[in-house]
Write a structure and sequence with these properties.
The chain is an alpha/beta fold. It has a single domain (17-169), classed as Rossmann fold, CATH 3.40.50.620. The protein has eight helices and six strands. It has helices spanning 29-41, 67-78, 89-93, 99-109, 121-125, 133-139, 172-180, 191-199; strands at 16-22, 46-51, 84-87, 114-120, 141-145, 160-162. Strands 3-2-1-4-5-6 form a six-stranded parallel beta sheet, sandwiched between helices. It is globular. Bound molecules: adenosine-5'-triphosphate and magnesium ion. The site of adenosine-5'-triphosphate (ATP) has 18 residues, from helix 1, strand 4, helix 5 and helix 7.
Length: 204
């Protein structure tokens, strides 16, 4: 196996890796369908669903489930889907989660890899509020997917493409509210992830 490659890597020196970060509290079809569509559209070898350790921009505005629970739900959600992979990289790093550090860490693991940061339009429009946005501009390309009611707009200087995806008007916020009210999450959240959040009573 060539240096810098990994099991499952395609032919060639580096892998094409999608990096889809999120809180995933819980993961849902609005994450998973765009992840698959972007993988297909950009011929990615893998999309990493990178579970944020401490999503610092959300802290204080609402309770956040333990990182371990969110990781387990994402693992269950992608189980059996080769191109999607749950990543605990940000949890292992610990502390506040800065995507720019994640990109740097992946870059040092695979210097020849092509890194594509996948973002919904709401996240993309706020990129300049993230940690070290100029470093992010230099170190990755973006694939942006539109979210219902959020036209795509990307701050200047980011290399980006927009990938068309089905418009799925679903958010973790609405799903947490449904779970708290005892309403069903079926078909919006994969069964394995629903089983975990029910067993652990995450949003009750
Ligand atoms: P919350 O309501 O708690 O903020 P969320 O549903 O927005 O949760 P996040 O974990 O915040 O999910 O989002 C992670 C990434 O997934 C972001 O880039 C976000 O834009 C994207 N995303 C979330 N939901 C959708 C959706 N329905 N369609 C497209 N992209 C989405
Ligand atoms: Mg969100």
């Amino acid at each position: 196996m060539a240096a810098g490659s990994a099991p499952g890597a395609g032919v060639g020196p580096g892998r094409r890796i999608g990096v889809f970060g999120g809180t995933f509290d819980p993961p849902h079809v609005g994450h998973l369908v765009p992840a698959l569509f972007v993988a297909e559209a950009l011929a990615l070898d893998v999309v990493l669903l990178v579970v944020a350790n401490v999503p610092w921009q959300k802290v204080g505005s609402r309770p956040i489930s333990p990182a371990r629970d969110r990781l387990d739900m994402v693992r269950a959600a992608v189980d059996g889907v080769d191109v999607l992979e749950a990543s605990d990289l940000e949890i292992r790093r610990g502390g506040d989660t800065f995507t720019v550090d994640t990109i740097a860490e992946l870059r040092s693991q695979g210097p020849d890899d092509d890194l594509v940061l996948i973002l919904g339009s709401d996240a993309a429009s706020g990129l300049d509020t993230w940690e070290r946005p100029d470093e992010l501009r230099r170190t990755c390309r973006l694939a942006v997917v539109e979210r219902p009611g959020e036209p795509v707009s990307v701050p200047d200087g980011f290399r980006h493409v927009t990938v068309p995806v089905p418009q799925l008007d679903v958010s973790s916020t609405v799903l947490r509210d449904r779970a708290a009210a005892g309403l069903s999450l079926r078909y919006l959240v994969p069964d394995g992830a629903v089983a975990i959040l029910e067993r652990r009573r995450l949003y009750r």
